[in-house]
Amino acid sequence: MAQALPLIERSGCMACDASFVNMFIWKNLYQSLICIRNGFLFRRGVGRSRLIYSYPLGGGDIADALSLIREDAAEAGGLPAFEGLTEEQCPIVAAVYKDINYTFEKTPQWADYIYHSSDLAALGGKKYHSKRNFINRFQAEYGGRYALKEITPDMLDELWRFNLEWCAREGCAHGHNGVGSESCAIRTAFSNYTALGLRGQALYVDGAIAAYTFASHLLDTVADVHVEKALASVTGAYAVINQALAAALAPSYQYLNREEDMGLDGLRQAKASYHPAIHLMRYSARGLRL
User: Fold this and answer.
1) How buried is residue 55: exposed, middle or buried, by Cβ count under 10 Å (0-12/13-18/19+)?
2) Does domain 4-110+282-289 have CATH number 3.40.50.920?
3) Domain 112-259 has CATH 3.40.50.10540
4) Pairing of β 82-85 and β 57-58
5) CB 199 within 8 A of CB 214
6) Residues 78-118 pLDDT 10s
7) Residue 71: left (phi > 0), alpha (psi -120 to 50), or beta?
């Protein structure tokens, strides 16, 4: 981690898959490997029985870095296939691999929603009127019965039990995609909470957890929000926990990356309703030799 973070910072990449925490907690699902060489952090995973590469993170000769990826792909008998490229990265890949005819395809389900942290903390102005209403309704119903707490290691067992409850009520029972895999990632995050430098908030109503969220350092200006869970039965809980984390992180980070919508209409609407400052489109790349 100590070696990876400076390379991520040098890259300036705001995408959520550039987060070291995401590389770590999702490594088993994607059979991911990382390697540091020649001033770059390389990432490789497996998708649909083929090797999938991410854009190298770091600084220096990007052509040399991409050449190393091509060598690795050639050892497996193929051409480099990429996921999670940004719009700026696509022409660089095409320019370096001049003898490969790449098709770049938008993958909007993996586009990042990136917000000004101060906007989510203040919820000012007409565009956030509905969010303030949710919070006001919550406070009217639960005033004097709720508490917000910064997550500390002694709370993690209780949070894990809540996560299992949330999965049963809101996730698995309602057919949410990837809930089981996400639970494994959350378990890994909780098991390494302090070492990964995670920061989070929990909302209690009548002494029981009703919502929680946590984030990590991505860049000096960007925090990545990995998880946000709330009971749908507690009106306004999502709005309250979202604002609480933003308020805690805004003094340290200009932006919050709240990750992707996974192609789910409900998530897309919820994330768009917070008015992202940046909607970072992502691309896949598949190539044929010319």
Assistant:
1) buried
2) no
3) no
4) unpaired
5) yes
6) 999 999 999 999 999 999 999 999 999 999 999 999 999 99
7) alpha
